[in-house]
Design a protein that fits this description.
Elements lengths: L1 H10 L1 H14 L10 H20 L15 H23 L1 H4 L1 H6 L5 H28 L8 H28 L3 H14 L16 H9 L1 H14 L6 H25 L3 H4 L1
């Protein structure tokens, strides 16, 4: 089943590209600032958290080791951008089936392409954001050039992981429409359960040991930690983390695609 679905995706690469171009062209059409909004949104969010935690609560940013970078905004962005990518892929993927109901009813094509095209669109936006972040980090003197290949691997693994979640959400939303609203709440809860605006060490002793270990090793926490290691600290995240992310990303993609395929047998009737 997985092999068949994967072959369909490969054969539908032209359709995926055309759907992605449609999203890229229509995203900020007739908007004065255009694609600048993709940069303003994470910067605005960073500014809010920087003010609240950096100024109001006086949180000190960690010093990158061995980069020597000490910047609360940059440390935040190294966590916010991967999280934003995950949130965008899953949210857009969630609505991809319901939002294209008319197309699904009229045309016979591989439905998986709707989810993948949203993931590719999100990937393009994320690469632009990451490129600007890397330029700023280099301007701050971070020696992260050797870690750029690892950063690209992390981005691809995060794309794989997020697309797997998006597959499961997209088809589940066809049968359970409230999921489109419920996911927004779940995403907010997951955000604050991920050490992005705080360090996991800062809550040590406030929560029990098992809960702390779960928070440290849940997938997005490991992704954020790995991105910060590669970008902010300019060091290799570690083989344990990379192996964990590889396994969890492949499992997410396979499980999500399996759910999508099994539930998709009656999608034309349900949608």
């Amino acid at each position: 089943m997985i092999v068949t679905s994967t072959k369909k995706l490969i054969h539908s690469r032209d359709l995926i590209w055309n759907l992605t171009l449609r999203e890229l062209k229509g995203k900020y059409r007739k908007s004065f600032l255009g694609w600048t909004w993709s940069l303003i949104n994470p910067l605005a969010l960073m500014g809010v958290y920087w003010f609240v935690f950096g100024y109001v609560f006086g949180s000190e940013p960690p010093v990158g080791d061995p980069s020597g970078v000490k910047s609360f905004p940059l440390n935040l962005l190294c966590g916010l951008l991967p999280w934003g990518f995950f949130g965008l892929v899953t949210t857009l993927g969630l609505g991809s089936m319901v939002g294209n109901a008319g197309l699904i009813k009229k045309v016979a094509f591989s439905k998986e392409t709707l989810v993948v095209s949203q993931a590719v669109f999100s990937l393009v936006q994320h690469l632009i954001e990451m490129a600007l972040l890397i330029v700023v980090l280099l301007a701050f003197g971070s020696p992260l050039i050797p870690q750029l290949p690892i950063t690209m691997v992390l981005i691809l693994l995060l794309a794989l992981f997020s697309t797997g979640i998006a597959f499961a959400l997209a088809m589940s939303a066809v049968y359970f429409r409230d999921l489109m609203y419920l996911w927004t709440i779940m995403l907010q809860m997951y955000f604050f359960a991920t050490p992005i605006i705080y360090d996991a060490d800062s809550i040590s002793g406030r929560v029990s040991g098992p809960i702390l270990r779960i928070m440290e090793w849940q997938p997005m926490a490991v992704f954020v930690s790995s991105f910060r290691s590669a970008l902010y600290s300019a060091r290799f995240p570690g083989w344990n983390q990379m192996a964990y992310l590889l396994v969890i990303s492949v499992l997410s993609f396979v499980a999500g695609l399996t759910i999508f395929t099994k539930l998709g047998r009656r999608v034309a009737e349900e949608i």
